[in-house]
Amino acid sequence: MLNLAQDIEVLARFGRALADPIRCRLLLALRSAPAYPSDLADALDISRTRLSNHLACLRDCGLVVAVPEGRRNRYELADPRLGHALDDLRSAVVAVAEDGTCPDAAERGCC
């Protein structure tokens, strides 16, 4: 069983990963199916260098893994439960604000 400090670190790591829109898009793309970096770069319309940096961040956070396939690496979520967590989190946030906005976000400096 994790202790409170470990729980906080795990959640903070997940939060850091989700703080960037490109990493969110990557996680959502990988939720659907594993993919190769070149395909992900094309799908997200970003450079391969930029994609590589974001994939490295997600690997360091323990959210994605690289699976060697010959001379290539295929990327996938580190655990299938992450896909469910992303779906649950998105659903919960949308349920809180039906219109999808964050009330008073500018005043609080969030969202």
Word description of this protein:
This protein is mainly α and 111 residues long. It has one domain (11-93): Winged helix-like DNA-binding domain superfamily/Winged helix DNA-binding domain (Arc Repressor Mutant, subunit A, Orthogonal Bundle), CATH 1.10.10. The chain is built from six helices and two strands, in the order H-H-H-H-E-E-H-H. The protein has a two-stranded antiparallel ribbon. Strand 1 (64-69) and strand 2 (72-77) form a beta hairpin. Helix 2 (21-32) packs across helix 5. The longest helix has 17 residues, at 80-96. The N and C termini lie far apart (32 Å).
List keywords for this structure.
62% helix; single chain; globular; 111 residues; mainly alpha; Arc Repressor Mutant, subunit A; two-stranded antiparallel ribbon
Helix and strand layout, with pairings?
Blueprint: H1 4-18, H2 21-32, H3 37-44, H4 48-60, E1 64-69, E2 72-77, H5 80-96, H6 105-108
Antiparallel strand pairs: 1-2
